[in-house]
Design brief:
It holds the Pfam family DUF2849. The chain contains 3 helices and 5 strands. With 99 residues, it is of the alpha+beta class. The protein starts with 6 loop residues before the first strand and ends with a helix.
């Protein structure tokens, strides 16, 4: 049996296009650290199915690798780190708020 790497459920908000993360209390948050860290494959499949059923709220749900951090889950792949920063076409949104 393959070892499971911890994950978070991520998608894009349907109307705004923002990157969102599924929380343990079934909310969609724009903050990665608020995401539910999933540590079991079967539970990850259940959470992904729950997310995918919300077609009126999100689009493109998938499981992204993550790890436990001091303030909540942290992305482990450069693509997911990039997605936490928001659009890169000009300085606005999350990029402006981080400074």
């Amino acid at each position: 049996m393959a070892r499971f790497t911890p994950k978070v459920v991520t998608a894009n908000a349907l109307l705004e296009g923002d990157v969102v993360y599924l929380t343990a209390d079934n909310r969609w948050s724009r903050v990665h650290e608020e995401a539910e860290l999933i540590t079991e494959a079967e539970y990850g499949d259940q959470r992904l199915a729950f997310a995918a059923a919300q077609k009126n709220v999100i689009v493109g749900a998938y499981l992204a690798d993550a790890k436990a951090g001091q303030n909540g889950p942290e992305p482990t792949h450069f693509r997911e780190v990039f997605r936490t920063r928001g659009p890169s076409n000009y300085f606005h949104g999350k990029q402006a708020e981080l400074n």
